[in-house]
Amino acid sequence: MARRGIPEINAGSMADIAFLLLIFFLVATTMDIDTGISRLLPPMPEEEELDDDQEIRERNVFVVLINKDDDLFVEDGFYDVSQLKEMTKKFFLNPNDEDNLSEKRELTTDYFGTMMVSKGVISLRNDIGTSYGKYIAVQNELAAAVNELRDELCMQRFGRRYNNLDPLNELEADLIADAKKVFPMAISEAEPKSVGGN
Amino acid sequence: MSKFKKAGTKGLPSINTASLPDIVFMLLFFFMVTTVMRETNLKVTVIIPEATEVKKLEKKSLVSFIYIGKPHSNLQKTFGSEPRIQLNDAFATLGDIRDFITSEREQMNENDQKQMTVSMKIDQSTRMGIVTDVKLELRKSSALKINYSSRKKIDEALLR
User: Fold this and answer.
1) B33 partner at 20 to 30 Å CA-CA among A4, A133, B81, B88?
2) DSSP β-bridge partners for residue A48
3) B144/A42 CB distance under 8 A
4) Mind listing the pLDDT tens digit for each residue in A142-155?
5) Do residues B61 and B134 both lie within one domain?
6) Chain B closest CA to A9's CA: distance in Å?
7) What is the domain range of residue B147?
8) B57 interfaces chain A, CB cutoff of 8 Å
């Protein structure tokens, strides 16, 4: 018997084994990226501090109510969700300085200089019987309004879309921060009331 | 010229498959690395609402999930058909949320704890009463960064 050395292992089935594993991972993989509307909840008050709330004048509050039948009441009447965005933008911009829309104050930022910004706050209140879908639809419209205002501002001054700004780039991150100062996402959520029997 | 003719008479040469395992392994490793295994078994049915202003959730490790929805049809006999809260793998009550947040927070390292986000996957037909209660519990446990999980809806205005 001559020395044969180490016999070669047949690697022909390696591909089959690898395929088997590959198919397992293909099936088990979920590639979906989680998306959603981010919000910051207000911290619990240390004590009962209600004084702050009263300082906001009535004209600066944009009242949005949703009842248990998912009807939307804005400021002075019932509206459809599709109208909410335009109304919110008009409330914040107040181009003709109408006295039923929000007041303005001066604000100086690095990028936009000194400009008049709104003192307005959105007050969102829902019933405990409101459906979550409707609530998100309303939240979405309010967010869309503020985002569009920021977008228009960035477009006007810098010719850049707000949504295309890169938060990892230092300069653009500052620009995003300033745009947020000019148009903050000022949504105040009141405790829901149970209006009308459920 | 005869060189070319000879080649033609040989018929189809068999393709060398020796590198096939390599290719398959490459794909395999790609999927192994990108795979995120489902950690929880959903016991509630959740159809999340659609929205246009959605943002991606960065860093999965900083996100904790709360599910709210009706129990699955095969569980409805024991748990009823009212929307329930699910944390991890089990049904929970409002009182459990605080413990859940604390334990989730302890699993993170200290720098990340401030970045902790709670993603709420809530069925769109759920009533707001339970959602508000959950939000209040989150505020009490000072988990203030929340995310209303929703699917990206394609903006009709952009299509025009």
Assistant:
1) B88
2) none
3) yes
4) 888 988 888 888 88
5) yes
6) 14
7) 44-152
8) yes
Could you give the number of structural domains in chain A? 1
Which of A23, A38, A165 should be substituted to probe chain B, the one whose Cβ sees the most B Cβ atoms within 10 Å?
A38
The CATH number of whichever domain residue B68 belongs to comes to 3.30.420
Q: Under an 8 A CB cutoff, do B21 and A132 touch?
A: no
In the beta sheet, which residues pair with residue B50? B151
Is there a contact between B147 and B117 (Cβ–Cβ < 8 Å)? Answer: yes
Structure ipTM over 0.95, yes or no: no
B68 & B145 share domain? yes
Q: Which of A163, A85, A88 is nearest to B55 (CA)?
A: A163
Place of tokens 């018997």: A1
The whole-angstrom separation of Cα B32 and Cα B110 is 29
Core vs surface per residue A51-80: b (16+ CB within 10 A) or e: eeeeeeeebbbbebbbbbebebebeeeebe
Distance CA A57, CA A55 (A): 6
Nearest CA in chain B to A147: B53
Contact between B117 and A38 using a beta-carbon 8 Å cutoff: yes
Domain count, chain B: 2
A51: which 2 tokens? 């004084």
pTM assigned to the model: 0.76
- C-alpha to C-alpha distances, A196 to A97, A129, A168, B104, nearest whole angstrom: 37, 9, 48, 38
Q: Are residues B55 and B121 in the same domain?
A: yes
Chain A environment of B31 (Cβ under 8 Å): 22, 25-26, 29
If asked whether residues B25 and B67 sit together in one domain, one would say no
Q: Identify whether residues B7 and B52 lie together within a single domain.
A: no
Select the residue of B57, B126, B139 nearest A36 (Cβ to Cβ): B57
